[in-house]
Amino acid sequence: MHRLFWIVCFVAALTAGMDAQAPQNPALAGAAPPAAPIPDTNPFSSPADIEQGGALFQTHCSYCHGSFGEGGRGADLTAGVYKRGGRDPQLYASIRNGIPGSEMAPVRITDEEVWKVVGFVKRLGSQGLLEKAPGDSTAGRLVYQKMGCASCHRIEKDGGNLGPELTEIGRRRGLKFLTESIVKPEADVEIAYRAVQVLLKSGQTVSGIRLNRDDLSIQVRDARDNLRSILMDNVQEIRYDKPSLMPAYTALNQKDLGDVIAYLNSLKGAQ
Amino acid sequence: MRSSRAGGWIVTAVLVTAASWTLSGQGLPVTYERLLKADQEPGNWLMYSNTYAGWRFSRLNQITTQNVKNLRVKWLFQGRHIEKFETTPLVVDGIMYLTRPENAIYAVDALTGRQMWTYEHRNPERTFNCCGRVNRGLAILGTTLFMNTLDMHVVAVDAKSGRELWKTEIFDHTAAGGYAAPGAPLIVKDKLIVGMAGGERGVSGFLDAYDPKTGQRLWRFNTIPQPGDPNFGTWAGDSWKTGGATTWNTGSYDPDTNTLFWGTSNPWPDYNDDMRAGDNLYSCSVLALDPDTGKLKWHYQFTPHDLHDWDSTQNPVLIDTVFLGQTRKVLAWPNRNGFFYLVDRTNGKFLSAKAFVKQTWNDGFDFENNGRPQVVPGNDPTPEGNDKVWPGIDGGANWMSHSYSPLTKLLYVFAREERRVFTKNEIQHLTTDPNVAPTPAQLYNRGRGPRFAPEESWGKAIAIDPGTGTIKWEFRVVSPPWGGLMSTAGNLVFGGTLEGVVFALNATTGERLWTFASNGPVYGTAISYLADGKQFVSIPAGDVIVTFGLE
């Protein structure tokens, strides 16, 4: 019987060994293949390189990321937010190796062409770097405070969670987008900040940001920043008719509007 | 003390295995005769769609509309990878054979989920699959399992040991823009039928047959006619050389007429037809082939000159149904283009088509011309992005399995309702000189497509009366699904949503009877089998295979 015990242990150890080996494929573990170190900055980022990167993007990326980088099957690249890092070598690695666990495969182009695509992708998500707002950013900061923007928006560590973070908004978004977001915020609302009204069978209504939803329940960040989860069994109706929680600041005078845009345009973040 | 307990486990295991053999079947080998009569072994799941007719229907009836509320998770198989499972496991007499996305095979005890052996095919660092590293499953003949790989090989593995028997390269996976083989192969008689993918990468499609014993290729059917073939010339210029028309899902087989049915993918480039005027045969078609020779008997093209990536790679469903008062042998085909088709499977004659999702592109079918669609102008992709087209890029149906129940005589389809933006890209042919850059495209100055809100697209499980195309019931879910449906003799329909809600519906009414929140996206379709004489239901959810049984 002792012998049998050892056989069982041996088989168990073998099986454990197989398990341990399974995720060692470097592409699956997310590790980069052994190669020359990736430079810290993009060696191919001239305007001509970026233009060529745009053409390569059309051929190799637009199928999933959309012709304008607006996203689709792949991520929206115009928002300038990158889950796997937005530094040049991080973007390079994502394109060169693909993203394990996602549908993004390695792109079949040369290393030099990858850098050109990196340049183009950064351009897509850095519209604010191309523009300088004419207003007074110091005055704009006061307008920002006076209007109470921080109750919903966060800059670095300060502010609320009901609206998108603005720490790098001056890099990520151009002036047209910033202006529109203030005077007509419902025009383009990120999916993660869609306003929702949940009418309960009890007669109550929960309003807030839609965080998640399946066929059994819906998760909401309510207007007081509480995380709420509601079973669909208790829901009468879900309304999406007002897409944004943000009021339209149409009453703002032109100077204040220009100044607050200049303030937002000055927020370039760490990159 | 510990040693005697170990001995006890082994005795129990032997008894359990013996019991499951007695109750559910004959063990290995799985002969072709058994595959032909797979519906008579409801305890097993012997091929991708369960039977050659492509029904994905289980004759097991222990789990019923009455007791399904008592269904509980019995075991999980943890993929321990970060890809999603899209596999359909096979089950042979208590042993489940499943594939991990990156081409590993696991043999596990179907009662407990415990692993017995593994086989791992090592893919190169770069593979050229369109939509993630995925594998959709295996075929079995005798005592051998067969798997296609992402780097375009087909491998034969001993089902008892996991030992590799042979490995054949299907095609150079780095050719053109890159080839891959993610689908499950199909055994027909003494041949292994193997499809391939790459329709987004300027490849040239084909369907192959191999000798299951040796791995030697027996025939290849080019899905794009070559010079001298009938229907050559349906592609302008040289566009036929890289026109796609791949065969990335699994077909069905009709032994009565000895016909192999296999669907083909889109023509390439998907949204830009400047260089490929013509019908682009045999893209977006069903091929009826002689499996002995690989010769084409007939074809029907669902979407001539496709511009929307509406692949016709759905699993063919073969049924006999009453159509206009006559019983007909048909292909029942809910297509990615949003229409449900009936095609006479003995001769390829178009019988009818009816939309099962919202659609904007079609104004009817020309019966004089074997059901050629009458295309509505204004639906083509545009450089600015055409956002008025329904269904979307991923279609009204996609690769996910449909299911037909001979008890309700209904066809179950997990359909997608959505519109998407179709943009005509300035695509350069991948095989042209790589040094010639496409025309300058400062696309970031051109504006953007609309962002669709969560409520603007949804999914629905529907029951279609195949003879009339009438939708008998509809069960709506939050998002367009990526999982298929399985129906059972317990009068149930099983499926799972993109958010991971696994559900059972009443097959007659569509009423939801049971749910489980797996919280892993379901990209695949359920199977059902017996282990230890009890009925189980397995479904992939995220990187886990979840197996349910009655309490």
Number of helical runs of chain A?
10
| SSE ordering of chain A | HHHHHHHEEHHEEEEEH
Mean pLDDT of chain A: 84
Give the helix/strand class of chain A. alpha+beta
As a percent range, the share of helical residues of chain B equals under 10%
How confident is the prediction overall: mean pLDDT of chain B? 90
Describe the oligomeric state of these chains in a short phrase: heterodimer
CATH classification class of the largest domain in chain A: Mainly Alpha
CATH topology of chain B: Methanol Dehydrogenase, Chain A
Named at the architecture level, the CATH assignment of chain B is: 8 Propeller
Largest sheet of chain A: 5 strands, antiparallel
Strand order of the largest sheet of chain B: 1-31-32-33-34
Name the CATH homologous superfamily of the largest domain in chain A: Cytochrome c-like domain
Q: SSE layout and pairings?
A:
The complex is a heterodimer of chains A (271) and B (551).
Chain A: H1 2-21, H2 26-29, H3 47-60, H4 62-65, H5 88-97, H6 111-124, H7 137-147, E1 154-155, E2 158-159, H8 169-172, H9 175-183, E3 195-200, E4 205-213, E5 217-222, E6 227-231, E7 235-239, H10 254-265
Antiparallel strand pairs in A: 1-2, 3-4, 3-7, 4-5, 5-6
Chain B: H1 2-24, H2 32-36, E1 57-58, E2 71-78, E3 90-92, E4 95-100, E5 104-109, E6 115-120, E7 139-141, E8 144-148, E9 153-158, E10 164-169, E11 186-188, E12 191-194, E13 206-210, E14 217-222, E15 252-254, E16 259-263, E17 285-290, E18 295-301, E19 317-323, E20 326-334, E21 339-344, E22 350-355, E23 362-366, E24 372-375, E25 386-389, E26 403-405, E27 410-417, E28 420-422, E29 458-465, E30 470-477, E31 486-488, E32 492-496, E33 501-506, E34 512-517, E35 527-531, E36 534-541, E37 544-550
Parallel strand pairs in B: 1-31
Antiparallel strand pairs in B: 2-37, 3-4, 4-5, 5-6, 7-8, 8-9, 9-10, 11-12, 12-13, 13-14, 15-16, 16-17, 17-18, 19-20, 20-21, 21-22, 23-24, 25-28, 26-27, 27-29, 29-30, 31-32, 32-33, 33-34, 35-36, 36-37
